[in-house]
Amino acid sequence: MKKSIAKIGRGSIALVIALTLAALSFSASTATTTTTVSIQDVEIGVGESTTVPIMIYDAENVKGANIILEYNASVVHVTNISDGDFDMPVYKAIDNETGQATYVVVNLPPPAGSGGLTGNVTFAEVTLEAVGEACETSPLNLSVVSLNNGTAEIPREVSNGTFHVKEKRHDVNISTDYYPEGNGIKITRDAAEVVPPGENLTIGETYKIRYRVENEGEFDETVHMIVKLDDTIITEYDKGIDIGSYHRGEVEWDTTGLTAGVYTITVNASIADDANPVDNERTRDVTLEMPEDTTPPTIEFIAPTPANGTTVKVNYVNVSVRVTDPSGVDTVLLNWNGENETMTKLGPTPDIYFVNKTGLENGNYTYKVYANDIRGNMGVSETRVVIVKVCPRYDINEDGAVNYIDLGILGAHYGETTEPPYPRYDINEDGIVNYIDLGILGAHYEETGLC
Questions:
Q1: Predicted TM-score of the model (pTM)
Q2: Short-list 290, 202, 180, 293, CA closest to 253
Q3: Of 15, 117, 199, 390, whose CB count within 10 A is highest?
């Protein structure tokens, strides 16, 4: 059981120690290792306190000690000295004007005490308070007045410490511990399912980008947050974070309308004066891909494509289609009378493709359109038929025969002047219906099977 002795005057210290140590009877032992009396380095902020031990390392049969701690009283104060491993504190004095703290202890022989102490021994616990300004330092010097085994002093070394008043600092960081696999950036789908790095994201889905910002400084902070996708800001806001606290943030990210590829997500947390700005920003690369697609492209015939079964009286046909597909259109082919040819995209116009068929002879033509998307799905349009029936101009009524009907039409307009587009009865298209047109018609009179 530890016993205590009331504080006595400085003039009586030597007498008390001498009487106490004289009462101890034992045999001195031979030390095989060097005994070291030590106090560690200390670093705390202005106004803060901490308790550290004064240690006796590699002690052998230690039964008494008198140690003085010396320090710069303008930087640090000793506010308390408490018991270590010894049975009996004999004397304690703290002087924060001169910067000295004295502590004297002894161990009594059995059965009154535990006898000599061996090994690593705690001499005392010292409570220190930082009273100086930030960045000031003070030595923590140990003066070993006595370290004995009851009959003789024990050889020893001293290891002094240094007291440092650390500067209060501003420091926030984006914690990688929150999600180490993603460099501190966690991505979830359906509110909870975590998307691990290496797993691609699907265009059209909505995800949440999550992160944690910690305040590791000595000030409450207002943190400016920016979350970006490449150079595009997804969200930007300010958040107050108290000392020792954190902010767990999340932002909703809708991927609709984005193209497939690799994107960089950046989360930045900034304050005006950060002691360690290197950990204020984290990035994570993600790959976006198109959703699984088994739907073929949609093909729609548009004007001026003739309707199915239409008879045209010119020797050309324009086939135009609008082709749409969520994954993207790859190729569009026109099948004209059994033969495929690539259709041309109409400049910057989205999804419009066309082919002009020219120099067509009279007859029936069958056509349809094939379209492939980038996922390999193929669509096919309805099959259409167009009839090309081009009659010579001297078959004025386009019935396939030159006869009295055509002659009557020309006669009804004989002598008239015309303008483009010239009517069919101005057979030579010279702007007047006259003997020249009559001569051309006469040269082909009674011809049949013309168209």
A1: 0.45
A2: 202
A3: 117
